[in-house]
Amino acid sequence: MTRVRRLVDGTRCKYTDILIWLGRVAVEPFWFQRAISESGMRLDRRHWCATLMIFASVLVTQAEAGEVLDSVKSRGQLRCGVSEGIPGFSERDAEGRWRGLDVDFCRAVAAAVLDDPDKVEWVPLYASARFPALQSRKVDLLIRNTSWTLTREAVLKVQFPGILYYDGQGFLVPAAAGIETLADLAGATVCVEKGTTHRRNLETYFAAHGWSVEPLVMDSAPETAQAFFDGRCRAYTSDAAQLAAMRLLAPAQREADLILPERISKEPLSPVVWRGDPEWTTLVRWVLNALILAEEYGVNRANIDAVDAEGTNPLVRRTDDERGLIARALGVEPRWGIRAVRAVGNYGEMFERNVGRDSPLKIERGLNRLWTEGGLHYVPPLD
C-alpha cells in the first residue's frame, strides 16, 4: 500500500477515498467492472480516483515483476530440481525421458508459463544438495520429495506453495525377518538417507520409547536402498511412498519386503521455491490448486478442450476481461490453468498414472483423495 500512497501524491484524489474503493475491489474483484456497466460510465470522482490507482498499481506490479518468473520467461526454460531416481516421482525411463508425479507437476508449471510442458531442464539432486541448489538459483523450482517444515521455511528462507502429496515416515523390512512392529527394531541398524528429516525423526521416536537405534546414513535414496538390500541394516526408513518406490528396485532374486503399518511422522511433500519472489510462489501455488480443482470440477485431460469451449464449468467460467486481469496479475498468458491440465491432466490423473492404481507402485490414495472423498486435498476457491 506504500506504493499506492506514493502514486496519490500530486493528484487531487483523496487517499481515504482510494482505500475505500480499493477495499471494495479486493472483496469483490469484478465489482468495478459491473459498476461501470451499470452506471453507463457515469462515475463520480472517487470511482475515477480508484480507477487511476488500480491501473497504476498494476503497472507498478508489472514493472516489479518477479525475478524468478522473469528469468524463466527470458530463458525460455524452467529448471526443476528433482531426485536422482525415485520411481513414481522422478526417474528416467528406458528412453531417457523423465517421468513421475513430481515431473508431471514441473511440466504443468512449464505449460502454464511457457506454453510448452517440455521446456524443462531437469536437475537431479541428492537430498543434501537440494536446498543449496535452490538458494544459489541453480533451479527455479525444487520438487524432490521434500517435506514442508517450520525449520526449513524460517531458517532456509524458502517457500512451500502447497502440498502435492501427503505422506508419513515408515519402515521397510524383509518379510521373512519376523519384524511385526517398530518395537522389534529396538537396538537395530536402520538405513536412512543423508540430508533428510528422517534421521532426526528416527532417533527422536526411538528415544521417546526407550529404544536404542543405530542409523546407517547414505548419500542418496538409491544408495540407501542398496545398503538395505545388501543386508547392511535390518530396516530402511523414509517416506512410505518412497519406500514403495525403492522396493521396485530390489534385485530379482530377493525375497519380498514389506512396509510396516506404523508411521512416526507427518510428511507433507511440497514444491519449494526461493522466498525472494512472492509472485513466483503465487503462480506455482495456483498451478497446483488448478490441478486439484480440475479434478473436483470433473475436468480432465480428455475433456479440457470441450469444457473450455463450452465455458460453463467453474474452472473456466470467466469473461475474457476477467481472464486477462488474472493472467496479468500472475505474469502469464491467459488460459494458464487450461494449459496445465491439458499437459498432464488433473491431480487424480497424475496420481493414478504415476503412483496409484495404473502404476507399478499401486499406492492407495488415502489422505491424497479430495476433501469431498475423505481426503485432505482442499484448496481455496478461484474467486
TrEMBL record:
UniProt cross-references to InterPro entries, sorted A to Z: Bact_solute-bind_prot3, SBP_3_CS, Solute-binding_3/MltF_N
Q: SUPFAM superfamilies of this UniProt entry?
A: Periplasmic binding protein-like II
Record's protein name: Amino acid ABC transporter substrate-binding protein, PAAT family
Q: Name one GO biological process term.
A: amino acid transport
PROSITE patterns in the record, alphabetically? SBP_BACTERIAL_3
Q: Where is the Solute-binding protein family 3/N-terminal domain?
A: 77-307
The upper taxonomy is: Bacteria, Pseudomonadati, Pseudomonadota, Gammaproteobacteria, Chromatiales
User: Is ATP-binding given among the entry's keywords?
Assistant: no
According to the lineage, what is the superkingdom? Bacteria
**Family membership noted in the UniProt record:** Belongs to the bacterial solute-binding protein 3 family.
Q: Which UniProt keywords apply?
A: Signal, Transport
* Protein's UniProt keywords contain Nucleotide-binding: no
